[in-house]
Specification:
ModA/WtpA; signal; metal-binding; ModA; alpha/beta; D-Maltodextrin-Binding Protein, domain 2; 34% helix; Molybdate ABC transporter substrate-binding protein; six-stranded mixed sheet; disordered N terminus
Length: 283
């Protein structure tokens, strides 16, 4: 049985000494922690919360949420709402590929809540004994073909992505958006040779918006988030590759009361409206 306390302490010490660097230490979140307001958090803010409730019973302390990259915009807004409803709590986020975040949690990274873009990654965390209670599916997401405004290559289907001169970018296969893309392509009997395979959906979308690709297979929500630069082309095979998003409080949370409250808050009617307005579907 792991010594979670020691793992969390070692991780916190590494953050204090080295800052919130990305990618080099598997025990830390891959993305730099951000506060609910969207600014980069301090190195100490990356740790799990240390206080659950004050004397009055109100929630207090810090809350660290690890969430799929596709939730960046909506969860940043929801984090602000949660802080407004609970002034004693400071929410810090780390966004990244669900597969990467799951491994960080299993290896002892200090965190209180995990929101995944795929049940498979949540199951990894649950099987390791790191989920408190039961994970709940709170939204679903579906793929589109993101293209530049005006659709200059006239992309209308997955088959069009195989036309000569069309540069396509996808998520890597181990990432939820990549796994979904592979399912959809298999259903359409289409084989692609992408110009790059990216670590998460935000990186995939960036290739398109920077002009490095003619099309990208991303979630509908991501295409909507850059509606001034791109548009999403719907395709029928995406219905066979819809991703469920589960969320759960983590068993080794240092602020379990706040973690459970955040999970419930995300599923409340006002915050579900934030999610559906961004293009997420109700489960």
């Amino acid at each position: 049985m792991r010594n979670r306390t020691m793992a969390a302490a070692v991780t916190a010490a590494a953050v204090l000494l080295g800052g919130a660097a990305c990618g080099s230490d598997s025990s830390k979140p891959s993305a730099s922690p951000t506060t609910a307001g969207g600014s980069t958090g301090s190195s100490t803010a990356g740790g799990a919360a240390t206080s659950a409730t004050g004397e009055t019973g109100k929630l207090t302390g810090r809350l660290t949420v690890l969430a799929a990259a596709s939730l960046t915009g909506t969860f940043t807004r929801i984090g602000k709402d949660f802080e407004a409803a609970n002034p004693g709590v400071k929410v810090t986020f780390s966004f990244g590929a669900s597969s990467t975040l799951a491994q960080q949690i299993i290896q002892g990274a200090p965190a209180d809540v995990f929101a995944s873009a795929a049940p498979a990654n949540m199951k990894q965390v649950s099987d390791a004994g790191d989920v408190s209670g039961t994970a709940a599916t709170f939204v679903r997401n579906q793929l589109v073909i993101a293209v530049p405004k005006g659709n200059p290559k006239h992309i209308a289907s997955l088959a069009d992505l195989t036309k000569p001169g069309v540069k396509v970018v996808e998520c890597a296969a181990q990432v939820p958006c990549g796994a979904a893309a592979n399912k959809a392509l298999t259903a359409a009997n289409v084989k692609l040779t992408p110009v790059s395979l990216e670590a998460d959906v935000k990186s995939t979308l960036a290739k398109l918006t920077l002009g490095e690709a003619d099309a990208a297979l991303v979630y509908r929500t991501d295409a909507l988030s850059v509606a001034d630069k791109a548009e999403g082309v719907e395709f029928p095979e995406s219905a066979q590759a819809v991703n469920d998003y589960p969320i759960a409080a983590l068993a080794h949370s240092s602020n379990l009361a706040a973690a459970q409250a955040f999970v419930a808050f995300v599923q409340s009617a006002p915050e579900m409206s934030v999610l559906t307005a961004a293009g997420f579907q109700k489960p």
